[in-house]
Amino acid sequence: MTNKKPAKTGNSASPQTNSAQKSRPQNNRAQNSRTSNNRAQTNNRAQSSHTQKSNAAASGSSLMPLLLVVIFLAGLIGAAQQHMLPYGIAGMYLTLSLLTFIAYAIDKSAAKRGKWRTKESTLHLLALMGGWPGALFAQNVLRHKSVKASFRNVFWLTVVANLAGLGYGIKTGAVDMFI
User: Which superkingdom (predicted)?
Assistant: First the structure.
């Protein structure tokens, strides 16, 4: 007795093929389109995920500077209430912070409209004089001047210089002139 295997032809169904595969016509173009769409969706998800991670990282990183602003201003007000610091100093920081925030908002608006911009040196001068809490708040809330590394480096130098000046003024008693 000879065992003969059935010959395989393109039209005959093999034992592994199920009935759903037999009844479903294979359309390569539709399958390629689905594959392309799946790739595009995967790429869009990856980009969206990257954007969400960037936004999450940005919001996570923006939480710390905002917390710094709140703690610093609350500390100034608390020190003034405890008569450790003149109210004028706290008022100066609050006023300059508000003015600096407004300057950033105006500059952001001008940038969007393609109009005349505020000089970076003006924004740095405002931060150096005591408006850095407002500048930091504006950078994080308005998302303005928050990416350019050279600007941010100079900005942080103005923050350090301002705080050093405040510390020196407190230590030497020079801030008492504002009483």
Answer: Bacteria
The helix (run of H) or strand (run of E) holding residue 107 is helix 87-113
Confirm whether 51 is domain-assigned.
no
CA dist 5 and 2 (Å) reads 10
pTM comes to: 0.62
Which long-range contacts (C-beta less than 8 Å, at least 24 apart) are formed by 83-90?
A: 85/170, 85/175, 86/175, 86/176, 86/178, 86/179, 88/178, 88/179, 89/166, 89/175, 89/178
Q: Considering the chain, what is the average pLDDT of its residues? A: 76
Domain range enclosing 134: 62-178
Rounded Cα distance between 15 and 113, Å, is 69
Looking at the structure of the chain, the number of domains it has is 1
